[in-house]
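Bumping with the actual sequence this time:
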Amino acid sequence: MAEETGVTYETVGAEYFEKRGLKRYAGVFSLWALGVGAVISGQFSGWNLGMGTGGWGGMLVATAIITAMYLGLTYSIAEMAAAQPHTGGAYSFARAAMGPWGGFITGLCENVEYVLTAAVVCFFIGTYLSAIFETPPEFQPLYWIGAYILFVGINAAGVALSFQVTVVVTLLALASLAVFWVSAFPQADFLKYAMNVGPGGTVLPEGHGPFLPAGIGGALAQLPFAVWLFLAIEQLPLAAEESHTPQRDLPKGILAGIFTLIASALLVLWLNSSIPPGTADLSKSGQPILDGFAVLYGGGLAKALSAVAVAGLVASFHAIIFAYGRQIYSLSRAGYFPRALSVTNAARKTPGLALAIGGLVGLAVMLAVWFGLGAEKGAAVIGGALLNMAVFGAMFSYVMQGLSFILLRRKFPDLPRPYKSPLGMAGAGLTVIIALVTIVYQLKDPIYRTGVLGVAIWFAIGIAYFAVVGRHRLVLSPEEEFAMSKGASGGH
């Protein structure tokens, strides 16, 4: 037994890790697809919901600020992931920098983010499918249940299949966006449609409105929505132990992914807003790309194209299921969560129980909200409060990861770093500042405050379990061994 900072480690035999083995498969291309796929749904739905007051110009300013935050974050995690190539990702970085409690709190932030992001994306899948097949709102839960069963099953079936599906659906998603961009460009009238929001959220039928109809405050209020354009790119380090050469490939995959997403986000923001119905109506849409296809091609063909566009949502749903599965797995393997959740299938080497439990929690939250509040109110809460909970968990984790980068540079200056961030501590510091500003603007919005309360309850349950049970049953997993040896040991 070993003890450190109020926690206790139990000795386990080699068979413990044999039952929790993973299989290496991914290269740079697969990692790029995983990163882009995890995010791409946010460019199909969600980003647009903040433009009703702040307008297109406000959204552009917010997107520029959030892009700076994600560049600081991705360069920082590229360095940390190459130096600590373990499945734990953000938890691993914070554990080495801040000790067991810091690692656990950071892991809990990501747990909220990934489990609920998957749920929100699943909700948007149901929204798109309902619009395509013209099914009544009451049918939505069946779409959700079917989506979880299918994609949890694919993730559990093996890492090779999981990554192969990720590549296919990510390429389909990008292809459908490319078709939209090419189709929208000739019909775009930026000044008339994108600039049709006036002061106070008034609709200007002829456009030509002010760049910032609600001033800089309106732009800052859109920060939480701009996050949706990039949310979950930070999950890539969770694939470290399933990558052939993570020290080399993780930085390449992360950076290729973020630059792909920046280009795509700017094209979506410009072209989706520059065709009818324009920014004002787009700000209320649950399926902005579908609305755009309907304008460009009319009903029948638009539905066919939008069926392909669902690939964007599917890509994110599938990739984020991978993320919460590995995130639960890593915290469980180290003893922070119940250890049974980290057992992998003997043949397929996938954490089936972690995948299933994360899915059941996300689905249970959605169904409780839907049936507890009714279809109309339930849809608003899932698309609002749950999305806000996911974003809040992400922002808190970005603060912790930025601080981890700074602390690791100071505490372990001689740690081998196969990749070094060119933005250094300034980039990490910028990430922390922008994430904190985004949290402030979340707290100013009454709808977001409801989501923050939900995160507080999630945290209370997690922290209570760790304080009473988990901290007395920790295991020297690769992440823990790395931290305990101050980087001298790479783990198992």
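The tokens above came from a reply further down the thread. The chain is about 70% helix and 0% strand.
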